[in-house]
Amino acid sequence: VIEQIIAVYGDVAPMRLVAGGLRVGTETPMDDRAKAYIREHWEHVHEATGQPFNFAFFERQGFVYDTGPACRAVVAVRNLAPENWLAYFKAVQRAFYVENRDVTRNDVLADVADACGLDRDAFAMVYASDEIGESLAADFAGVQAMQIGGFPALLVQDDEGVAFLTVGYRSFAALQPLIERWLQDREA
Fold first, then answer.
1. pLDDT tens-digit profile of 91-106?
2. CA–CA distances in Å: residue 120 to residues 9, 57, 80, 127, 144
3. Cα separation of 94 and 54, whole Å?
4. pTM for this one?
5. Distance from the first to the final alpha carbon of the chain
6. Is residue 80 helix, strand or coil?
7. What angle do CA 113, 117, 120 make, to 5 degrees?
């Protein structure tokens, strides 16, 4: 859906990814109850979007499901190579959801950056920088200030402020009339 939005509207409404921090700072390994909850969510996402998942993930023992490292990595790529943020974002999602790789590990995130054609050492340096920590904190604070309670969320921003187009998944066909209306209102 993001690719379709960019293809159709990227010239008139540039898109910027903001990290939301769904499960940032988690320190407790997933128990059976948490695994069942997440598995059910993944099944719903698969039904709605067709997103593939590798359910072998739930066989992991002692896994701490912290999205902080992956969020930090995406923000690092957004700053290091803004033209590659979407490719990297998709690659991290694929690594985690489909390939069952541990994207809480910095070396895995660097491997994904390398596979996306980014310089591994430059990625590692930017990833570890205070600047990225500050950018990530700003993303999280902005999401919290807007009280975004679900992901994905698509917002539009102009001189009038910020408006929500969706909180939660919607197909491009469902979003397109909302985007068109926003663009028409903006021109009026």
1. 999 999 999 999 999 9
2. 32, 26, 11, 10, 31
3. 10
4. 0.88
5. 27
6. helix
7. 45
